[in-house]
From TrEMBL, chains A, B:
It is an enzyme of class 4 (lyase). Keywords: Decarboxylase, Lyase, Pyrimidine biosynthesis. CDD domains: OMP_decarboxylase_like (cd04725). This is Orotidine-5'-phosphate decarboxylase. Residues 16-256 form the Orotidine 5'-phosphate decarboxylase domain. The gene is pyrF. It comes from Parapedobacter deserti. Pathway: Pyrimidine metabolism; UMP biosynthesis via de novo pathway; UMP from orotate: step 2/2. Its EC number is 4.1.1.23. SUPFAM superfamilies: Ribulose-phoshate binding barrel. It comes from the Bacteria. The keyword Lyase applies. Belongs to the OMP decarboxylase family. Type 2 subfamily. The keyword Cell division does not apply.
Amino acid sequence: MTRSELIRQIKTKRSFLCVGLDTDINKVPAHLLGHDDPVFEFNRQIIEATADLCVAFKPNIAFYESRGMAGWKSLQKTWEILPRECFRIADAKRGDIGNTSAMYAAAFFDQQASGLGFDAVTIAPYMGHDSVQPFLAFEGKWAIILALTSNTGGLDFQTVEDRNGTPLFEQVIRKANTWGNAGNLMYVVGATRGEAFAAIRKHAPDHFLLVPGVGAQGGSLSDVCRYGMNAECGLLVNATRSIIYASAGTDFAERARQEALALQQEMEKELLNKGII
Amino acid sequence: MTRSELIRQIKTKRSFLCVGLDTDINKVPAHLLGHDDPVFEFNRQIIEATADLCVAFKPNIAFYESRGMAGWKSLQKTWEILPRECFRIADAKRGDIGNTSAMYAAAFFDQQASGLGFDAVTIAPYMGHDSVQPFLAFEGKWAIILALTSNTGGLDFQTVEDRNGTPLFEQVIRKANTWGNAGNLMYVVGATRGEAFAAIRKHAPDHFLLVPGVGAQGGSLSDVCRYGMNAECGLLVNATRSIIYASAGTDFAERARQEALALQQEMEKELLNKGII
């Protein structure tokens, strides 16, 4: 999906919500456990209940890998039903030396090779340029690079300043800006890092930011918008647990929809305030 | 596998060789392509030809994921035939927020959950302590943290110095030392970084180092030993392409054995010189 198509979807749906599909088989409601593939059935109902309220879906690959071959099968089937008008993110946090990163890029982008054709993959930048470039070599696909993450460990190294006072996450953004552009690169910035958005926008005014941490992790949507929104929105805000686990009962999909709707309505206000729609 | 058991294996086999199983289906010799699962058959013959010469095997997960479900099946079958006296490393370079890293740990350590029960997983440290700790929570398993990698991009961020002149890879080692110990943590240091081993040994005198980059990537085994070996060896030196792709013909396994044997013989000399055997 191109940048302009993504912006068009945001304006049409009046939403910049990304729904995380971090489906833990131990949290799937009991009434689904009789299905052949309860994780897929759970995802199917969540997708159906929220697809008109969000512009992106983001399965976190760990939750599928943890179940080995059975999990990979759930992922494959889930990918196949993700609506094509939604931006499809493989939250995989991959990265390796060049020839190996090319294999990871094939895993998530090259449908003929792997069966999966996501629009974007999240990438850990520790190994530098040749770990990222193979993802950028895929026309029309995106690399989403970890910059400042939402977890407590995000402060262990990402905010350490170099001799010039530049924190690591800013070094990452500055360097990565030279590897790609606002049409094939995004950055992950945790919603819990409200105060850092201004600094990040200085270095990446046009890039989309993928923002996890709203909801269960405690980040504030209005802070994220105040400091992070640009003239074309420039934000994909992810919520996972607050949506997909809103209820553990037979009403899980309906409750997921209510949670997604509440976020979409907040987002619509932000888009209106900013004059984007 | 415990640290003392690993050391015993090194002394018994007079080797600290790790054979990388980065099996690219496009490089599998033509005569194997008629097999049900050519990647597994290739691995089976490589393992059989080299198991007495090495102490560890290290499939790089990217090469399996790139083939989707079929690749995951090859990985599963390969894991099942890895000799139990060998240290089995999933080279996956994973890492995510705490609850998600726990899923990755299950993917590679928890045989009941995923079908796989590796001894160790490689981890990218960008996301800090809570991305690593779930791996250390598994008794008898190891986290192998990227410190200074062998690729050119390894110099983009890993050697950037903080205000005190400490490069990032040393910050990683110092901090990670507080999360685990020499019995459950190793560090990845590229063989191409000969000069850095002395600095690393200052901070991690007892830890094992996993050293890729000998062979195709141009690192020198004797330099690695000169600066990196400790009194109990403390090294697992990986070679992949120089061994598994030594020949593209029907003699590929025999040639792989010759290459592994040459490295084992060099390693035996180093172990003798150091008085370890």
